[in-house]
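ERR on first pass: missing label on line 2. Operator R.T. fixed the label and resubmitted. Corrected input:
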Amino acid sequence: MRKTMLALLVGALIIGISGCGDRPTVIYKQGKYQGKPDTQPWDNEQFKGDRVAWENAVKARAQGENEYNRAN
Amino acid sequence: MARMKFLCDAERCIVCNGCVTACKNENEVPWGVNRRRVVTIDQGIPGEKAISVACMHCSDAPCMAVCPVDCFYKTEEGIVLHDKDLCIGCGYCFYACPFGAPQFPQDGAFGLRGKMDKCTYCAGGPEQNFSETEFKKYGRNRIAEGKLPACAEMCSTKALLAGDADVISDIYRTRVTKRGKGSEIWGWGTAYGRPEKAAVQPGGK
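pass 2 clean. output:
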């Protein structure tokens, strides 16, 4: 009898605890991004948060696509 | 503020599929998913054109408008990205996109449709930059390295341009001004020399 009670108690505890693992329900707000925030491309060791440096790097890189700079 | 765009020069594309291969390799895109593809118009007819197509990162993206779970977002640089953790794989974005950019990996015996995958402009996704999770879900983050998408940088004829809209527009404008238009840029004259540039044959009239 005691063993049965103990088993029931353990079972109830397990069921009770498993409820704590539920993920919070996502409440959708129409028309607004619901996902995780993204980090900015300049927020890293290379650019150290310097947006202008990143923009300049990308612009310089784009000039590599212009062969008129090299050929003519 | 940078506004990142793709621009494909139809006069230069030689359908080498280098962009497709570069994208596949760089992002380790799974089998059956093509973030980029080359489309040929008027194939077999003289003057046929080809363009490389992927997500065009629309300024007013229809995929963003139709997504029922709002998993799309646009970065400050104008790159349209999405959160795969939120995507339910409904396929609405596929029907809304005029370029057929959203791709769905087919998985399992019954072709179960997975979460949407598309060109990220090599900018990763909403995970820590350069993390393994970001790479597995979205691919390489070249943008955070100060580089441009692999497809454009790999393009052998530089038909596919990527970068800030103003910068690539200037490159394209210069190109068009220098090379001319219409029959000046393809055909016999371009391939074998224009009559006015042809060398004078010795003894010729």
